[in-house]
Amino acid sequence: MSLPRIPLAGVIGSPIAHSKSPQLHGHWLRTYGIAGHYIPMDVAAEDLERVIRTLPQAGFVGVNVTIPHKEAVLEIADLVTDRATLIGAANTLIFRQDGKIHADNTDGYGFMENLKAGAPEWNPRQGPAAVLGAGGAARAVVSALLDAGVPEIRITNRTRVRSDRIRSDFGSRVRVFDWVQAGNMIEGANLLVNTTSLGMIGKAELRVPIDALAPGTLVTDLVYAPLKTDLLQRAEALGCPTVDGLGMLLHQAVPGFERWFGKRPVVDRETRAAALR
Fold it and tell me: How confident is the model over 92-106, as pLDDT tens digits?
């Protein structure tokens, strides 16, 4: 009698040693008693397609994809969800039994679930959202906020052309501001989101003035190293509720884990602790 194949999953990027995903998925595999493994893989751009097409033969049921490969995998996948197409990037690949590679983007889902968990009283329909940055993460956030019914999204980026592209792709509810207007853009916002890497350990500080924030405005930062960024500290001093970025990482991982291993994991205190180890 042949034993069932052990399902494998992992995360592909370059570099990848810093990723918290192996700790996170490893925690869930142990918690639910699943005989599976989740492996970090540092793959160069020129090897990406060959590696991805080989993985199913080695027992892989899917992978997460991170920087710098999230756009390139759209060209490799056989099936791409509408939201991954609109965002222009995928972070989750599912290797189907019929041999097809299915690409999805769960970043927006993870972002919204993190807000619901960290600020359940926040109502997306109550006012504009101000978004700092216009990269792949910003596109996922904008898509999710529009779906949630945010009436207006104000966006700014150091390179304006990327903001203009988001407005062109997502429509008239998006308003573009120059980076020097970032402090003014925040006035009257119901939500402020930093999607840039500014404020991350080893990166430059986020110098955007936030004095125009009204107390009660929700502020969230996709950066989670440090867990409480300077932006979140400044916002709390103004009387604003804040949500850190770690929850987005945890929640975006839920749909992939469920598809790969057949169990929908719960994001709880133990999950956060496992990711921070």
Answer: 999 999 999 999 999
For residue 53, what are the contacts with CB-CB under 8 A and spacing of at least 6? 76, 101
227, 244 in Cβ contact below 8 A? yes
Phi, psi of 245 (to 5 degrees): -85, -10
Residue 121 in tokens: 């009283």
Q: Identity (one letter) of the amino acid at 261? A: F
Specify whether the backbone of 135 is left (phi greater than 0), alpha (psi in -120 to 50) or beta.
Answer: beta
CB atoms within 10 A of CB 153: 25
DSSP the chain: -PPPPPPEEEEEESS-TT-SHHHHHHHHHHHTT---EEEEEE--GGGHHHHHHHGGGGTEEEEEE-TTSTTTHHHH-SEE-HHHHHHT--SEEEE-TTS-EEEE--HHHHHHHHHHHH-TT--GGGS-EEEE--SHHHHHHHHHHHHTT-S-EEEE-SSHHHHHHHHHHH-TTEEEE-GGGHHHHTTT-SEEEE-SSTTSTTS-------TTPPTT-EEEES--SSSS-HHHHHHHHTT--EE-SHHHHHHHHHHHHHHHHS------HHHHHHHH-
Task: Single out the residue of 196, 221, 259 nearest to residue 64, CA to CA.
Answer: 259
Which residues have a Cβ under 8 Å from the Cβ of 202 and sit 6 or more positions away? none
Q: Roughly how many angstroms between the first and final C-alpha of the chain, as a whole number?
A: 40
- Is residue 2 scored above 70 in pLDDT? no
184 φ/ψ angles, rounded to the nearest 5 degrees? -75, -35
Residues forming the active site: 70
Per-residue pLDDT of 51-80, as tens digits, reads 999 999 999 999 999 989 999 999 999 999
Q: Which of 140, 149, 142 is nearest to 122 (CA)?
A: 149
